[in-house]
Amino acid sequence: MSVTFTANWRPATRFAVTCGCARATALAVPHDTYEAASVEALSAGPARGALPGCAMPEICPEYPLYVHDVDPGGEFAPEVNVSERNAALLTDLLGFTAPETTGAPRPARLDGGPTDDAGQLPAEDFLGRVLVALALTPEDEGVDGYWDGRHHLGGRRAGYLQLRLTELRDLAQWCVDHGRDVAWG
Asked: 154 lies in a domain?
């Protein structure tokens, strides 16, 4: 399972067909309706080529196409997707520590629930937390993965936390610039 950080949801105004690659998604031609985008996705067929701008053109044709909604401002809201395990590390670095470990109450979500693997904050608050985490977090040395029976519990490469915090900073800045909250779940 994973957790995605992005701008809070708003109804889409347009739709684009994409393989999931950020560059290909940014270059995709938007459609006015979900149905029109679906027709494009279904008509591509199994022998399609790589999408324009795809970061992995050699394997792009093997990935299924899906319909991605375009933000009401006409842009694609940025997303940062991480595993649940890494999301727990990141939310801890951002100050969303479980009360059983600190004794302090957790920050509340807008709906009043506790902040854990899902939540929403005003972009300015989220950006402030990210900037503090970037300033205070020592360089991530990474962690080796290991096997637990038949399951591999993946590690984390060196510098991973700084990379993701930088992506979260860029996401938070985009949300500040567009008047949106940062949401994750």
From this structure: yes
Structural domains in the chain (count): 2
Q: pTM of the full predicted structure? A: 0.69
Q: Is residue 91 located within the same domain as residue 171?
A: yes
Domain closes at, from 27, 49, 70: 70
- Rounded to an integer, what distance in angstroms lies between the CA atom of residue 59 and that of residue 50? 8
* b/e burial code for range 40-50 (CB count within 10 A of at least 16 → b): bbeebeeeeeb
Model pLDDT for residues 58-98, shown as the tens digit of each residue = 999 988 898 988 776 767 788 999 988 888 889 999 998 65
The residues, any chain, with a CB within 8 Å of residue 51's CB and separated by 6 or more, are: 18, 19, 21, 24, 27, 28, 60
Tokens of 131: 């900037």
Q: In which domain, by residue range, is 88 found?
A: 80-184
Distance from C-alpha of 113 to C-alpha of 125, rounded to nearest angstrom: 18
